[in-house]
Amino acid sequence: MNTASKALHKGTARLTLLALAASLGCAAGAANAGGWHAPSAPSVSVRYDDLNLDTVTGARTLYSRILAAAQVVCGSPDIGNFPAFVAARNCQKEAVARAVHEVHNEKLSAIYLPPFSRG
Q1: Which of 23, 32, 50, 102 is the most buried (most CB within 10 A)?
Q2: What is the dihedral of CA 69, 70, 71, 76, to 10 degrees?
Q3: DSSP assignment string, 14-53
């Protein structure tokens, strides 16, 4: 049993997704205004201590949770506001990539599709 599996069985494993202000596209413009300080990045904890990440089903369930958390943290603006839509999508891609990397699980990594690999 690997270290990640041991932590899962103890019920203490958590993963936090962070949305960076720069990923949301607000830092560049606001920083030029002068005197701007970055707000704390929003975060969502994604529990996966109830999942068996040694199975594809467990890894898929965690991946779904990560995707949902990234939407909560980064937002899901309407495509009518295209700059906000693009910034949110970039934020979501970055948050998901970081989360998958943090978990360090082969099955989760195999399920994860790197950003820009989708058509």
Answers
A1: 23
A2: 160
A3: EEEEE--TTTTTHHHHHHHTSS--PPPPPEEEEE-TTS-T
Distance CA 111, CA 119 (A): 16
The pTM score is: 0.69
Q: With the C-alpha atoms ordered 89, 94, 99, 101, is the resulting torsion angle positive or negative?
A: positive
Please state, in angstroms and rounded to a whole number, the distance separating the CA atoms of residues 43 and 115: 20
Q: Are 42 and 13 in contact (CB under 8 A)?
A: no
CA–CA dist 46, 14 (Å, integer): 6
pLDDT digits (tens, 9 = 90+) for 67-82: 999 999 898 888 899 9
Residue with tokens 């082969």: 106
